[in-house]
């Protein structure tokens, strides 16, 4: 991360930036560094620069966003000094984003249950969903929090011939 401090008109100090949102986005879409290199044809040096929060031109950021079909906010965020960060309040009636970890784990366990009930191997199921075997293993693992998309949830339900709400039910 570059440490070039920039002070804005409202005294908010920017300390640098991070590509952590990119890695969270890629994880939620089951896209690995390997996939970036071999499926999206990103240069390994570029991937390394992303991992290490090195500088990029605006054009490179735009190219990567277009290639992955993501917004810049899903790729990078600016880091400000903690003591000068403005307090961000939620609109009336909206609470801060809750921790959904236990729900993701529950959904993954339910998906595994219905997959086994249908007699599908993990390999067959991953292939039919178009996801990697390792991503599916993470989703189904009760010790791993792996955020999934609604698209994935509906594809899994269709493939398993199960109504989506079954994945969300608690006994």
The average pLDDT value, as a whole number, equals: 80
How would you sum up the global shape?
Answer: elongated
Instruction: For the largest sheet, list the strands in their spatial order.
Output: 1-2-3
Low-confidence segments, given as residue ranges, are 1-9, 83-90
**H/E series, N to C?**
EEHHHHEHHHHH
Protein model, in words:
The protein is mainly alpha-helical. The protein has helices at residues 20-28, 33-38, 44-51, 58-68, 101-117, 122-129, 133-140, 150-160, 165-168; strands spanning 6-7, 13-18, 77-80. It has a three-stranded antiparallel beta sheet with strand order 1-2-3, with no helix packed on it. The relative contact order is 0.12. Helix 6 crosses helix 7 (133-140). It contains nine helices and three strands.
Any chance you could write out the topology, listing elements then pairs?
Layout: E1 6-7, E2 13-18, H1 20-28, H2 33-38, H3 44-51, H4 58-68, E3 77-80, H5 101-117, H6 122-129, H7 133-140, H8 150-160, H9 165-168
Antiparallel strand pairs: 1-2, 2-3
Q: How do you describe this structure in short?
A:
The chain has 171 residues and is mostly helical.
Labels describing this entry:
mainly alpha, elongated, disordered N terminus, three-stranded antiparallel sheet, single chain, 171 residues, 9 helices
